[in-house]
Amino acid sequence: MQPMLNVAVRAAREAGKIINRASLDIDLLRVARKAANDFVTEVDRAAEQAIIETLLKAYPQHGILAEETGTAHGRPDSEFQWIIDPLDGTTNFIHGMPVYAVSIALAHRGVIQQAVVYDPTRDELFTASRGAGAFLNSRRIRVSNRVRLEDSLIGTGFPFRESDDFDTYMAMFKRVAQRCVGLRRPGAAAIDLAYVAAGRYDAFFEAGLKPWDVAAGSLLITEAGGLVGNFSGDADYLHSGEMVAGTPRVFAQLVGLLQPLARAGRTKPEAAPATHGAIDGAAAAEGDKAPAPDAQADRPAGSQPRSTVRRIKSTPASSRPQSEKSDRKPADRPGRSRQGTSK
């Protein structure tokens, strides 16, 4: 296992201990409201602090982007930035629903290099290093082999902020629900993305996401042979707030359903298309065809796509406005390393 990944795993497990201890006395938790339906607890803050201390003890020269404290810690000018969600699924946690996770990713010059998603209730540790594959408790994982949306189980997230576009989402929900086997909404995007990487879901889509929600999960999926992008299939999913992920064939069909509604519902200009995760619009519209060849298809086997992720800047949550908060063979899937050694 990579040294930086080892440190991230240690940090995630420390946070998991704090979360598991607190889950025994949920009624005693102090809960604050960041915005409508958006909560933070003392456990979020304690877990985040434990993660930051562990990471900066090993790498004091690195930068930090964390959900609760933003970029207040670490070196903001560093080429390395840790992207942290200490407790993804806080609403589940405070209601005693055991679906939440710790999410930690490391970006170097804006490209995600290491990823950890840890589910402390099930002791499931999902990890990935760029170019080395994705793993669940040291066992290699891959996205499912399903190629038809009609056979697929899809994960999603519901809008919950007052500023969210509920009408557009409901139109998307209807389109997808009428085509797939079923839709699931556990309430923690990090777990949803890890489940796509492990083949438990065949695809996932959600809007209104933040970088810390998806940074780690996106690398898990690409290292497991899947694709990630925004609702147009482009690579700007970290900053657009839109995420589509899945097996290559199902990803294309899902983008074909979501893209027209997403464009109609957007209130700001689209981000410029990028090569990673991009698909040909005509192929997506046809629905049951594979993505058209792109920059990923021309790469040598075993090489990894470089997403065009820019450096992320943030302010602490407390100062934010209220409104914010295949037929392909497995070996041929983009982003898959042929070396499957356990970590």
Structure characteristics:
2 domains; D-Maltodextrin-Binding Protein, domain 2; 14 strands; disordered C terminus; 343 residues; alpha+beta; Fructose-1,6-Bisphosphatase, Chain A, domain 1
Structure commentary:
This protein is an alpha+beta fold and 343 residues long. The protein has two domains: 3-132, 2-Layer Sandwich (Fructose-1,6-Bisphosphatase, Chain A, domain 1); 149-295, 3-Layer(aba) Sandwich (D-Maltodextrin-Binding Protein, domain 2), CATH 3.40.190.80. The chain contains nine helices and 14 strands. The strands form three sheets. Strands 3-4-5-6-7-8-9 form a seven-stranded mixed sheet, sandwiched between helices. Strands 11-10-12-14-13 form a five-stranded mixed sheet, sandwiched between helices. The radius of gyration is 19 Å and the shape is globular. It starts with a helix and ends in a 57-residue tail after the last helix.
Give a brief outline of the structure.
This protein is of the alpha+beta class and 343 residues long.
Radius of gyration: 19 Å
Protein structure class: alpha+beta
Unreliable stretches (pLDDT < 50, length at least 5) are 267-310, 312-343
> Mind telling me the CATH class of the largest domain?
Alpha Beta
> Can you summarize the main beta sheet?
7 strands, mixed
Tally of individual domains: 2
Walk me through the topology.
Blueprint: H1 3-22, E1 31-35, E2 38-41, H2 42-58, E3 63-66, E4 80-88, H3 90-94, E5 101-108, E6 111-119, E7 124-129, E8 134-136, E9 139-141, E10 153-156, H4 166-177, E11 182-184, H5 189-197, E12 203-206, H6 211-223, E13 227-229, H7 237-240, E14 243-246, H8 248-265, H9 281-286
Parallel strand pairs: 3-4, 10-11, 10-12
Antiparallel strand pairs: 1-2, 4-5, 5-6, 6-7, 7-8, 8-9, 12-14, 13-14
